[in-house]
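Q: Structure tokens for this one, please.
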Amino acid sequence: MHKFCCVIFSFNRAMQLDLTLRSLTEMLENPHVAYTVIYDCTSLHKNSYEQLIREWTNKNICFKRCDRRYRSFRENFKYLLQAGNLYRFLKIKSMRTRFDNFKELVEETIRESKAPFTFFSTDDQYLFKSTYIPEKALQCIADDPTNVSFRLGMSDRLKNERALPEKIKVNRLDYDENEYQGTLLTWDARDPNATKLWEYSFNVDFQIYQSDALLDFLSPILYHIPTTLEYAGLRVARKNDRFRKLIGTTEKTIIGMQLNLAQTLVNNVAANFSLDALSSLYTQGYRLTIPKEQLTDIDWLFMPQTLFFYKKSQPDTIFEFKDIA
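A: Here is the predicted structure, written as tokens:
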């Protein structure tokens, strides 16, 4: 039986998705993870995803594509009786014009996995060294599933505006299990001294929940892409005081790759590498690689000046983006 259900979201980014899958399957030390990719793509990116699926299906990765059939106001009416859902439905145009079966696929995947714990990932997350999810953290979640979650990447090593706030109340719990040792950080997302990431009680990048509690939380919420899942989830969590007790670690092993934007609903800062060019390179056999010297464990986001690749037929040769794009 699987212990973890990992749901990965992807749109027009086969190259990044491939790197995310490689990092997860190579660097996540915990066994018994069921991986499902929920994706969509435009016609220009169809070939890259077909190639990726051929390569990864044999490695027990499940793929589910959104059906793109518009769910009408009438079909969503039962959710719109709730004021928060109605507000978001009216505020966000794409929820009224591009609402497909994304929500159905997310909740179906969690339900069918029967795994006790679930975490999400977008297709731009990268585990850059060995990563272990402590049993001590999982037990804390199991003991209080509607209130506790564990978020990878929340380290006291972060710098700048994402650093651990000086005045926030943080407890430290040491663990020594399965040949892994470390220290857990625990805090309250509603602590008045919490800032930036430290006050986010719901997230779609490597935040681990008890599966039944997560399903119960998500079922009444209306969302149609990862951005609105996080946007709505955070607001409902704050309103209902859910998942406010957070757990992180003192070690940093994961980073977000801001190479480009797949959607512009939220205009985050990112490097500007072409999605179309990366898709073309993927179908030509190039695969993204990140040299270790480019990364530090104090960073939250990785916005590179250039990209590096190897080719499947030439795994020992490194190519730079500007030379092959």
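A few notes: The chain has a mean pLDDT of 93. DSSP finds eleven helices and 15 strands in the chain.
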